[in-house]
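Quick one before lunch.
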Amino acid sequence: MTNAQKWMAAFLGLFLILFFLGTITKKDDVIETLSPQMMQQSQQNTSQHTDGFTLIKQSGCITCHGSNLQGSKMAPALTGLSEYWTREKLINYLRNPSSFGTDERFVEYKEKYKNVIMPSYNNIDVKDLGRMADYMLTK
Ligand code: HEC
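Model of the heme C complex:
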């Protein structure tokens, strides 16, 4: 190999190294721009960061109780509940609604929403039920 050829080879090698470094750092950039969003999303999905109303929406309560819990043909409004419920009792109710059917209010509900049954939510984490209860008690 002549000197000139050696230089050529050296430059070529250097060029290749730089090229690969370039692609690697580009990938890092992409990951960096994605990760804050991804972290935000995963935070939203953990119950720790989910507020009561979001949980209520996610649990399908609004299908029956209305998009703003204003009530519908299927279920009563969830407003002014603090008049009737403590936080504890409301959580217990959500876990087992059928055991709370004796109040005058509920006798009326049974008549008015004859074909709809308030489901029991004992599969939902009690902490999340607590967050939902907190929200409902402010409505
Ligand atoms: C399939 C329809 C349906 C769904 C879904 C539903 N409910 Fe109900 N809910 C009812 C009906 C009907 C009543 C009336 C009580 C009865 O008939 O026993 C009721 C009653 C209630 C009450 C008592 C209201 C009062 O005046 O004290 C609360 C609180 C309540 N629901 C909360 C929720 C929450 C929170 C969710 C979601 C986790 C939910 N409901 C999902 C139908 C539903």
